[in-house]
Design goal:
The chain has 2 helices and 5 strands. By secondary structure, it is of the alpha+beta class. The protein has one domain: Thiol Ester Dehydrase, Chain A (Roll). The protein has a 5-stranded antiparallel beta sheet, covered by helices on one side. Strand 3 and strand 4 form a beta hairpin. The longest helix has 18 residues. It is elongated and about 45 Å long.
């Protein structure tokens, strides 16, 4: 679970939070999930490859406004030999302990060999799969 604060910088001309922020938040939440489990995954010397997003669908339910506090929850939906599907829930804080769901999203990722211009999927290394055992 990751938390974000919004400001006027995140808003559009209408005054609500611009929709592109949602994809940034889920991307950052995914990166922080992996970093919290395996920091070496982000090292050029330790990396066996990288994840690339194949598709991402965000379904918006409510508006967020500047100065809302945003909470993003990350869930593993499916794990495959060459990829992962994550499910995300995006909320805004509504009071001290309650959350209001703003959106939900699914993101499909493929694991590819670093530096390979062909973008052919590669088997996810065991050290990355170990992130999901906890």
């Amino acid at each position: 679970m990751e938390r974000y604060k919004t400001s006027l910088e995140n808003s559009n001309l209408i005054g609500n939070i611009y929709f592109s922020n949602y994809s940034k938040w889920i991307s950052e939440a995914r990166q922080l999930f992996f970093y919290s489990k395996k920091p070496a995954f982000f090292s050029k010397f330790e990396s066996d490859g990288e994840f690339v997003t194949l598709s991402c669908k965000i379904s918006h339910q409510q508006e967020a406004m500047p100065f809302d506090q945003i909470v993003v929850k990350v869930y593993l939906k499916a794990l495959f030999r060459h990829g992962i599907i994550f499910y995300y829930e995006i909320f805004k804080k509504a009071g001290k302990s309650s959350l209001l769901k703003l959106a939900y999203a699914t993101e499909s990722l493929a694991f590819i060999k670093t530096g390979d211009c062909s973008l052919k999927p590669k088997v996810i290394p065991q050290k990355i799969l170990d992130c999901f055992k906890e």
